[in-house]
Amino acid sequence: MREDIKIIKLTGAISIISFLCTYLICINIETSFFSPDSIFVSNNFLLTISGGVLTGAILSLILEIQKYLLDKRQAENTLYNLAFRLYSEFFFMDRNMQDHIDNAQMPVSKELLTGRTKSASDLMQAIRNIEYKTFFCFHAAFPSKHEEFCMKKTFELDRLLTDNIYLPIAWNTAMAKKIRQSSVAENNGLITSADSEIKQILHILSDNMEKGISEVDTYLQSLDNHCQGRYKWGTMKETLHKNPIHLQDAATLHQFIKQHNQKDKS
């Protein structure tokens, strides 16, 4: 978008200069202030040249403005989609950890956060790669918000995500403790939030995810306000929070296979 703005400014400047030249030549034709005495140069010739340049410059300006507006809208749509997915990743990581905290009988997977952590990190990198500039940045809050989010907030969120490595560490520690105590048979050797360290780690990481949720929410709200409510972020957020997917609601392996077989038969 930065290049679009530069080209628009350049074609705008050429349009203004060629307009002034055309206007002055027309005035000169009427007043004969300057009369070139040459078979190669005349007022009409200069008028034709300047008028052609003006026409071409105005056409180019219109096309560049159209391209800028299309690029701007595409950038906004892409940023919203990426940020919405980022919000969802933080939200579901937090929701999954809360489910384990609330249900001490639910086995905690060593890779509970791995996939979503990688996805969230990739999404933030994708957001950082998108340049968003407007003509009148000083009149709009979002361009500066986007720059701050890319240059500062995403790196802070990345540091929060690196803390997720402590869940596998806590999981390995809990499993090693079970083996040392010869209690692998308890809970079928599964690790749950009944383990004090696992529960503490889940609480700490859940707090981190809530900070991430808050930062991305602020970013999305700023983008939606900038676009005059085009994305209805408040409604989308409310819908997401009203219909969370709880891990305890997921079917067991036996139930999943049974449901799949029933679908095949039908």
Descriptive keywords:
mainly alpha, 266 residues, 0% strand, single chain
What can you tell me about this protein's structure?
This protein has 266 residues and is mostly helical. It is built from eight helices and no strands. Helix 1 (2-31) runs antiparallel to helix 2 (43-102) and helix 5 (166-180) runs antiparallel to helix 6. It starts with a helix and ends with a helix.
Q: Report the span from N to C terminus.
A: 53 Å
Structural class: mainly alpha
Fraction of residues in H or I helices: over 70%
Number of E-state strands: 0
Order of helices and strands: HHHHHHHH
- What is the general shape? rod-shaped
Tell me the fraction of residues in β-strands, as a range.
under 5%
Main sheet attributes: strand count, strand direction, barrel closure: none
SS field, number of helical segments: 8
The overall pLDDT average reads 83
Work out the radius of gyration. 31 Å
Low-confidence stretches: none
Quick overview:
This protein is mainly α. It has helices at residues 2-31, 43-102, 114-128, 142-162, 166-180, 196-226, 233-242, 253-265.
Describe how the helices and strands are arranged.
Layout: H1 2-31, H2 43-102, H3 114-128, H4 142-162, H5 166-180, H6 196-226, H7 233-242, H8 253-265
